[in-house]
Amino acid sequence: MSEKRIVGNASHSYEVAEGWGKLPEGITYGYTHGIVVDAKDNVYVHNTSKDAVVVFDKEGQFITSWGAEFEGGAHGFYLHTDADGIEYLYFADTNRALVVKTTLDGKVLLEIGIPDRSDLYDSERRYVPTDVCVAPNGDIYVSDGYGQYYIHHFDAKGNYIRTWGGRGSEPGQVIEPHGISINLRGDEPEIYVADRANHRIQVFTLEGEHKRFIDHDLDRPCSFYFFGDEVYLPDLDSRITVLDKNDRLITHLGEDQQAYKQQGWPNLPKDYYRPDKFSSPHGVCVDSRGDVYVAEWIFDGRVTKLVRQK
């Protein structure tokens, strides 16, 4: 019997569920960029292959796959329960410069293209959305993380409202705003932006006003997953960071301070990877019982389940 692999600390301890989520014959991952979990604890893995959405149950049994239209452009991935009580998926497609809303089985309900801002975008200045989130009122926020570094605000029907950001390190400015999410842990909703190349999180009001920075215990934050009073962040430089309700460090999961320093990273020799260490975590989510799922930015994908022990 093999020894259990445990990661975390005294308050947040997890066992690595080795072999979880085996793909059926004929399906392979591209880069695994995003991962979300629905109310039934089914897990959706977003990757750049022709099977851009792969769905498993919590035990890791394959359910279905779809999403050929996202092949090559699969990036930001967000699950939101709308005011109608129904869960929907939201996508940021870097190849098509498109934000898409679908049902859980892939029916397209809304597409939002390039914002009508000729002062910001043209043939030379590209728009490359990397993530998307949804506020309690249904408004949609999109981070242009690989283009001109702006945050765009739309209503629930995709009508343009406002833009803020732009390249820089001053309050309100961002460099590579890679991920975006809604923080509901305080008195009022806030927007969290993974200001990745500035090595920090930047917090805004829903109207885009700068509130504060979070810049401790972070390296290259990619995105966010809020679970209870905690927030889980894939830190691209080889760890998952868990912060408490005051955004102070609880623990780093699977930290490997050597991985991102290796030649050829993130696509390292297969014998380098270890089940209890991360190399290039890009997406994270947490199910109803506190189990953690991690998707890594590796050319043929890597998904890890961590089972909460205490």
Automatic annotation (TrEMBL):
Q: Which organism is it from?
A: Paenibacillus solisilvae
Would you tell me the protein name for this molecule?
A: 6-bladed beta-propeller
For this UniProt record, the keywords arranged alphabetically read as follows: Glycoprotein, Repeat, Signal
Q: Does the keyword Repeat apply?
A: yes
Q: Gene3D superfamilies in the record, alphabetically?
A: TolB, C-terminal domain
The UniProt record lists the keyword Repeat: yes
Pfam families in the record: DUF5128, NHL
Q: Where are the NHL repeats?
A: 165-207
